[in-house]
């Protein structure tokens, strides 16, 4: 197990929109009480790296955290890892499934975003071991 970073922010998708939270509970169906809960276990949680927001800022796109639709914003560039790699955040174990696919919603923020963030928007993970994730939790890569 190797420590690689920590959680910067957490977001839950509710009917009224993306909400910044201090913690959330997850199980194998996703984030409990999230509007996407029990929709697709392989896309249960979206993790985004601060590097995505840094890339946006370098291109004069200044948006607040949560704009990219992430559930977990971290200070580690996780995009370099492939499907099957497992990470532990707090007491939750998750497995990388795939890079996040781009959606038309990014164009409504800025027309440059889809091309700019093609492989840097986020990564989908599925929950292997349920638990609770807190803001500031440490992140570990599992062997």
From TrEMBL:
<dbReference type="Pfam" id="PF03473">
    <property type="entry name" value="MOSC"/>
</dbReference>
<dbReference type="GO" id="GO:0030170">
    <property type="term" value="F:pyridoxal phosphate binding"/>
</dbReference>
<dbReference type="InterPro" id="IPR005302">
    <property type="entry name" value="MoCF_Sase_C"/>
</dbReference>
<dbReference type="GO" id="GO:0003824">
    <property type="term" value="F:catalytic activity"/>
</dbReference>
<dbReference type="InterPro" id="IPR011037">
    <property type="entry name" value="Pyrv_Knase-like_insert_dom_sf"/>
</dbReference>
<protein>
    <recommendedName>
        <fullName>MOSC domain-containing protein</fullName>
    </recommendedName>
</protein>
<dbReference type="GO" id="GO:0030151">
    <property type="term" value="F:molybdenum ion binding"/>
</dbReference>
<feature type="domain" description="MOSC">
    <location>
        <begin position="18"/>
        <end position="142"/>
    </location>
</feature>
